[in-house]
Amino acid sequence: MSILHQILGLLCLSPLLLTGCSSEDASPLALHKTALQLNWVPEPEFGGYYAASELGAFMAEGLAVEIRPGGAQSPVEQMVAAGQVEFGITSADSLLMARDRGADLVAIYAAYQTFPEGIMVHASRGLESMAEVFQGGTLGVIPGSPFLKLLERDYGLDKMKVVPHDNNIAPFLQDPKMAQQCFISSEPIVARHAGVDPQVFMLKDIGFNPYTGLIITRRQTLEQHPARVSALVRAVRQGWRAYLADPDPANRVMHALNPTMAAATFAEAAIIQKPLIQGQLDDATLGTMTLERWRTLAEQLEDLGLIERAEPEGAFVNP
Amino acid sequence: MHPSASVGLEPLRQPPGTVQGTGGVAVSLLGLGRDLARTRVLDDLDLHIPAGQFLALLGPSGCGKTTLLRLIAGLDGPDRGAINLDGDGRAKAYVFQDACLLPWRRVLDNVALPLELSGVPKAKRHAIARQLIATVGLGEAVDRFPDELSGGMKMRVSLARALITQPRLLLLDEPFAALDEFTRQYLDDHLQALFLEHGMTVVFVTHSIAEAVFLADRVIMLTPRTGGIVLDHWVDLPRPRDRGTRVSAAYLAHIQRLAEALTSGVVAA
Amino acid sequence: MIGSVLAAWLPPLLSFAGLTLALEIGLWLSDIPSYLMPRPSEVFIALHVHGADLTRGILRTTLAASAGLSASAILGVVAAIALSSNDWMRRAFYPYAVFFQTVPIIAIAPLLVIWFGYGLKTIIAVSFIVSVFPIVANTLSGLLSTDPALRDLFRLHQAGTLTTLVKLRIPAALPQFLTGLRIASGLAVIGAIVGEFVADDYKDGGGIGTVVMVSIKEFKIDKVFAAVLMASLLGLVFFALVNLIGRFTMRRWHIAETRE
Questions:
Q1: Alpha-carbon distance B46 to A160, whole Å?
Q2: Which of A26, A130, A255, B85 could bridge to A32 as Cys pair (CB 3.0-4.6 Å)?
Q3: Nearest by CB to C156, which of B75, B104, B145?
Q4: What is the pTM (predicted TM-score) of this model?
Q5: Does B227 touch chain C (CB under 8 A)?
Q6: C73 pairs with which residues across the strands?
Q7: Which helix (DSSP H) or strand (DSSP E) does residue C171 occupy?
């Protein structure tokens, strides 16, 4: 139903452009009401935002931020571009593709310094490198994922069956020769709890390392309300610092919103993702981005035929 | 089989005294009883129909004429009593109120259906069917579908189908009731001709007194009150009966007699 | 002859052209960007530019949907015949047929993947599950509503159960079967597409459903609309084919078909 929802969502979006959203700069007396659209359900990957909320960091910066959970394939870029929501979460490869089609969206904060996705296989196979994964078997990947084209180019997929990846690891559990796309702090934990020892080959290790957990907004918003954008980023940075130091308070809030994931899993995921979020940055520069990383990604996507003109400079700011 | 010449809408004439053909079976009903929906539709009914007799069953709705006909046909089983057919009980034919043709088959295959169900090979049954279709005057309609026929034509096809097995017992349930008067009279004439030609036993259900008198040797009236026979009336008009008969005094007298019986307390529903 | 063909085709073609023109002008005048809602002209261009992908995709889906619909037709009729044969059978097993209609396919599709694996087999299975019920229900209704007088006729001439089934009840149920087939045809296409979302082996591009998913992820919204258009056309073609079958088999004798 998600696909149909998305298509319907696209069709319904046009009338919304007529309404747009009108908001005024935060005055000292009134908090600016805004929203942050997540691209998945509340999980540790969004811990910093819930932590910021709990801390009162948003309020201190004059913002009343509603954190809106998303689901499978939430059309975050379209929602932000259409003005339906001021801020959203997405990943760098998606952003560059959206920009290539004409959406003038800008990234302002990168929660994940290291790309947390990889290919998960059964540890029992004793594979030693990513290349060995593609000797045979089934590969489960979300159709249209940019790195699929990269895998095809660099390793060749003729020996593989390539099938859709859903949020369901039952096929993986059933089939020892199955490899699937995974989020390092998510599926491998579930697999282990289900009795299958996973081995993950990170995509960053083969050179695919886009920023993800990006907060994006329209350029229009950036240009018209720069103070607001800076305020949001400061609050978010504070939230992530707090979450990295102690994830429990925010985890409790998120677990209440997403009870299907066990509290213990929240804790485990938070631990695993910590180095990917911290990266090489210190407290003051948490979430900032470099042009070099964006350039690399833009070139990769151009090479793979996914975008036509790269323009990485305009894709991000560090407010 | 003695196929007559192809006929149009002309009255049919048969020389008197030439009753040939297949002959009929005699039917005996003893103490016949049938209950439907907790009503005794028929009760303790005794009736003997001699071979080759044309019997009309007359009566108001609900008096059990169709039930009786179906019991004789073997389409229904009695609750009490017995039905005996003297002779080949399988040579029965039934004509329904609606022509009941298979809409996806042409006239030829509709008429040939009874022979098909008996396993007669195609060439043979088609040949026989063609002859019969000609007899009822529908030679040029052989390849048409029922949808393309008028009500009267459909009924003629139904009659042809009924005759194809050379039945010795012909049962008809108000077959011409849905047709206009002109077609009805034509088909009455036609039926009489067939009766005179083949000599089968005919049981004809109708609620038209005029039709009963015109066609039958004997008219029986049923009543819903007792579930039995209340009137057994001989129609001694000479055959063949024709247009002249329909305006004769004797004919009208029979009708009047029966009409009185119908309206008097004897058969009051 | 020409007149009747024109009379049948001209109104829908004109309305389609009119709506397309209105949409084109409306979107052109408004400021809605293409990545939210592409103009019809952009969609037609996408049809051309991505023709190879779209054609490959729609052919795959056509294969799966055809197989699914055929399976529904055959198994659906067999099931209907079995269910019509006696009351007990019907009361005992009809609920299972209803189950095919009501089960949320999105929920059980992953189960089907586990049982049948990835690939065409499972996609056909989804297409079948989604489309079989209308055929069972309609054919069953047709088989049960045979004219009692005709059944009497067959009984009178001592026709056996099988003969009556083959020469009377099945031909009599043909109009109802075709009604069911008409409904099932569109569902079979939808089912194939849903099946693709879950089980498509899409290394070479996959079916039209996968093309839609990939195009969404790659932000090629004009391609998305082009793919959706092709999927709708497939449904229409199926529907038209069923109508053609109906016209051909029942033209001479069934009033609903002669009116077309």
A1: 86
A2: A26
A3: B75
A4: 0.83
A5: no
A6: none
A7: helix C170-199
